[in-house]
Amino acid sequence: MTATPHAADRAPASVRTEALEALLTEKGLVNAGGLDGLINRFVNDVGPMNGATVVARAWTDPEYRERLLADGTAAVGEFGFSGPQGEHIVVVPNDAEHHNVVVCTLCSCYPWPLLGLPPDWYKDPAYRSRIVREPRTVLGEMGLELGDDVKITVWDSSAENRYFILPARPSGTEDMSETELAAIVTREAMVGVAVVGSPS
Description:
Elements: H1 7-10, H2 13-26, H3 32-46, H4 49-60, H5 62-70, H6 72-77, E1 89-93, E2 98-103, H7 112-115, H8 120-123, H9 125-133, H10 135-141, E3 151-156, E4 162-166, H11 178-184, H12 187-191
Parallel strand pairs: 1-4, 2-3
């Protein structure tokens, strides 16, 4: 006789997470406000603004760009960005002829200190499997149409290396400050499923 799974076993991860948070809060093991603050910090403050700061510096400082491409971990460490999921950062640049995109096919390895928590689509099994097999199609479905002459490389993040994309600097940004440049860099561009658009 086959056992019927409990409703909790069939519930989406978000429902199970909320139930666990409620239980831990009820037991006094976590503070709901503190937990929300931590999540908010990773989603909005820690990342992706840390990564955008790194990109803006690389766009405006050729020597920093060289250090970033040579040793990503050390270069982002110059800003104090480090910690769990931030070890072994490998930075790959995008340009008009070569487009790089990141995935983690095994789980969801992701450079948290630079980008914050990974978005749901990055963890989705469909993205993790399809971006490797048909990157041009998947990128098109996500709104990024690349010409047939653009070579696409997919980088598979792991515990050994966490890849970070240095997007191409868009035209029309020559007179912008680092702070202004950082404001136009998106999380998606630093994963490689988008490009940074020229300012309007």
